[in-house]
Design goal:
Layout (H helix, E strand, L loop, with lengths): L14 H25 L1 H25 L9 H17 L7 H11 L6 H10 L1 H48 L8 H24 L2 H10 L13 H9 L7 H8 L3 H4 L6 H8 L3 H6 L14 H15 L5 H11 L1 H4 L2 H13 L2 H9 L1 H22 L4
Helix pairs in contact: 1-6, 1-19, 2-3, 2-5, 2-6, 3-4, 4-5, 6-19, 7-15, 14-15
Length: about 400
């Protein structure tokens, strides 16, 4: 019997604990909401506004407006407080619930001297109002707890969904044919990757930095060709300076020169230092990587779309024979048993000895079933308890 959905693990509370917490939070909020509705939500909101205003007055003036017999009262604060209380009661709506409680506070506060016990008496008079207002506050607290509990369930559901995908993928790899002739994929992909790497390296050493950075900029129109955009200040520098006509390796060499030595090679040595030296990492890392095909290769549909974009880009920087090799890679899904060969490659490259043992023992399939069961419980809980 599965324990995945009932026991906690290193990722936090168990599925059962999360679902139970959400159910309890939902029940608590529903009960709090009903208590507010029974008393009248609009009525309580109105009462709460006046209750909080009166409570704030008591809290703000108690220390300054009272006398313990040993210290002098702050008469300015005392008078101001009584005026505030009087103003409050005068503007209080005639039909407000528990008006008599507020009037009792007014009577209690209008004395020649005030003691701490008078404030205690005033607060006791307001207790029936506070109990009603507490219903609104409890509704808000339980709503917050409900949202937190639902968030926890949603987070765990996403985690288990990802884990289901990982385990299902692992099971698929376990079914792969390890004796499949993967060289049918490897050889054309390696041939293309080597050709584009050599071609790009040659262009990096021969073309001007201006041309190569312009090429990198154009790839922004192709989302599957993931070159980092070149820094704007670097692009501006190579575009309008004489040094921009030099290849990137030369600029990198210049960046290591002292200013006095560099002045023999470029008109504005300090400008080169400022714009090139600060971007050496970008220039050194600019290579054919984003133009190459990954190994293991991507899924067939992804490969087709990626090759489609690459052909448009590679043709700008490599000769036709390199583009021809890329076209051969694009045709692999239609010319080979691509997915079977790809799964074989992935199994050989990605499966560890431990994973192979777990696949052979059935542990992976058992975990997959348990994880799916746990996720289904979370999905059901989210559907039963929508966002509020």
């Amino acid at each position: 019997m599965s324990t995945q959905s009932t026991e906690p693990d290193e990722n936090g509370p168990s599925v059962e604990a999360l679902v139970t917490a959400l159910q309890r939070a939902a029940t608590a909020h529903e009960q709090a909401r009903k208590r507010v509705e029974e008393a009248g939500a609009a009525r309580l909101d109105r009462l709460r506004e006046h209750y909080e205003e009166m409570s704030a007055l008591l809290d703000r003036y108690e220390e300054r407006a009272t006398s313990d017999g040993e210290t002098d009262v702050d008469m300015e604060a005392f008078i101001e407080f009584q005026e505030e209380i009087a103003r409050f009661v005068e503007t209080l709506p005639e039909d407000i619930d528990h008006r008599e409680a507020f009037e009792t506070v007014d009577e209690t506060m209008h004395q020649k001297w005030l003691k701490s016990s008078d404030f205690e008496t005033a607060r006791q008079a307001l207790e029936p109002v506070g109990e009603l207002v507490e219903r609104v506050e409890e509704r808000e607290r339980t709503l917050e707890r409900y949202r937190e509990a639902r968030h926890d369930v949603a987070v765990r559901e996403r985690e288990l969904a990802d884990r289901v995908d990982e385990l299902a993928d692992l099971v698929a790899l376990g079914d792969a044919d390890l004796d499949a002739p993967v060289e049918k994929l490897r050889e054309p992909i390696e041939a293309y990757n080597q050709a584009i790497a050599e071609s790009f390296d040659r262009r990096k050493h021969e073309d001007s930095a201006r041309e190569l950075l312009a090429f990198a900029e154009t790839t922004a129109a192709y989302p599957l060709v993931e070159y980092r955009p070149p820094p704007e200040d670097l692009v501006a520098y190579v575009r309008d300076s004489e040094a921009g006509a030099e290849p990137i390796p030369t600029l990198l060499e210049y960046a290591d020169y002292s200013v006095s030595k560099l002045e023999h090679y470029v008109p504005d040595a300090r400008r080169l230092k400022r714009n090139v030296a600060t971007h050496q990492t970008y220039l050194r890392r600019l290579d054919s990587g984003p133009l190459e095909i990954s190994w293991p290769p991507p899924a067939a549909e992804t490969l087709r779309w990626r090759c489609r974009e690459l052909i448009a880009v590679v043709g700008r920087i490599a000769p036709e024979d390199v583009v021809a090799k890329l076209r051969a890679v694009r045709e692999l899904p239609s010319r080979t048993d691509y997915e079977r060969l790809r799964e074989s490659v992935r199994a050989r490259e990605q499966l560890t000895d431990e994973e192979r043992d777990r696949l052979e023992s059935g542990a992976v399939e058992a975990e997959l079933a348990a994880t799916r069961e746990g996720r289904e419980k979370l999905v059901a809980a989210l559907e039963e308890h929508p966002e509020r």
